[in-house]
Amino acid sequence: MTTQEGEQGAWGLAVALAAVAAVLVAMLCGGMRRLHEWAWERGLGEDRRRRLPPGDMGWPLVGNMWAFLRAFKSNDPDSFIASFIRRYGHTGIYKAFMFGSPTIMVTVPEISKQVLMDDDHYVPGWPKATCDLIGKKSFVGISQDEHKRLRRLTANPINGYEALNTYLQFIENTVIHTLERWATMGQIEFLTELRRFTFRIIMRIFMSSENEVVVESLERVYTDLNYGMRAMAINIPGFAYHRALKARKKLVAVLQGVLDKRKATRRKKLSPAHKDMMDRLMEIEDEKGGRLSDEEIIDVLIMYLNAGHESSGHITMWATLFLQENPEIFEKAKLEQKEIQRDIPPTQKGLTMKEIRKMEYLSKVIDETLRIVNISFVSFRKATKDMYLNGYLIPKGWRVQLWYRSVNLDPQVYPEPKKFNPSRWDNFTPKAGSFLAFGGGSRLCPGNDLAKLEISVFLHYFLLDYQLTRENPHCRVRYLPHPRPTDNCLAKITRLNKASVQET
Ligand code: HEM
Predict the structure, then answer these.
(1) Are 471 and 478 in contact (CB under 8 A)?
(2) What coarse category fits the chief subcellular location reported for this protein (predicted)?
(3) CATH number of the domain where residue 197 is located
(4) Are the C-beta atoms of residues 442 and 124 closer than 8 Å to each other?
(5) What does the pLDDT look like over 166-217, one tens digit per residue?
(6) How many domains does the chain have?
(7) Which residues of 395-405 are buried (b: 16+ CB within 10 A; e: fewer)?
(8) CB 171 near ligand 1, within 6 Å
(9) Ligand 1 pocket check: which of 405, 445, 456, 457 to mutate, most ligand atoms within 8 Å of Cβ?
């Protein structure tokens, strides 16, 4: 054998060994995945197992979480669900293993609606890690009956014409002063400032008598709580979830301090000058005269204060950016606001709900922003007994993930779904279940009208008098926990002089 033949032989052997190794690794991986699936499905029995929707349970322990996080850390979060559609067809319902549980993912309007409207068979099913952050006694952890009672008590004073009317003036003053202040500040993190602005409003409703120091310290802590909300539940220093747990502890301590002070005031028989939501929560009694415990009050507050500012702050930022990036839409929205402003009687000070109702085009701008941005991209339920959706089994105890993002971007309902086009809402009312920006059923967001009011008032004054210039207009977008530019939208807000306002 020549040296050349010897070398060729050695190469051939190496290639063959590498191929065998690759096949063995593939078989081992495939075997591990099948074993993982089998371990979770074997209890179902053959008949029920065959009726599960198509899909795969991913890897042992982590399930499909790597694929999910990879997609949501890329610039194409929709590639996660797209890979299920590509592999298993457009069934709109898939099995997976997410956040430590076997899960059925629902991605289309009709099936989402069925789950959302059926409280008898689907209860909230948020991962334990999320419940530990928001609080076991908040709406994500309590019984259906208790939810109904607390929801009635807390949602009524927030929503509805009367309630919104009460908050309008405060919101308007805050918007006017905040915009004026930003215009003097040079470069700001627009998103960070908007979150402060929406936090101030929700604090006014829930804890109106607290001072600026409490407001500032709570708002800062919420940032850490939020970043841990959709992260892997790794409670080790350096990880987002660990920081979030620490943030929760701080929130509990601050709120307990406020609660103790209020109780002391009540013991002295001093009644508050103005009752806010915290006072109401302290006063609720059940049929036997029982009051809510401190833990219950604090968990409901932590949930509301969080839900009540993060999403509105983000949506206000995106709506402003979409308007700035689409000059024609900006001008149309501005024209509407100028007409509304012009028609305000000279004797009237500021906006009333009558003007808000006239903001028809602006309302479409906001709905379109909500639809595209998908702040709450997914929600969790749990089946209380074996259920069937489109003929597929949802086994008792399995999680159901409702992919609001996929529903809101469904091309069957919204052609060119990623195009920002407020006019698509002209003479269009989506069928029940096909617009889920605020969820649906008994868990529909109780702050939906308040959020739209805040955003409308902000955009009214912004459109009339201001413009925004971004430092990094092509900044990368991060999708977890909520979509945001990685620079938190560094920008300058400039006040246009009155002359240029008149010209446009
Ligand atoms: C643009 C702003 C907002 C968006 C996009 C939004 C979105 C949502 C969504 C999708 C849900 C349903 C979650 C599910 O199906 O389980 C929800 C629930 C909730 N939201 Fe909002 N929300 C916003 C603003 C607000 C505001 C301003 C408040 C407070 C006043 C609030 C308080 C809540 C609460 C307490 C829940 C839980 C309701 C329950 O379980 O009964 N949200 N929100």
Answers:
(1) no
(2) membrane
(3) 1.10.630.10
(4) no
(5) 899 999 999 999 999 999 999 999 999 999 999 999 998 888 866 777 888 8
(6) 1
(7) beebbbbbbbb
(8) no
(9) 445
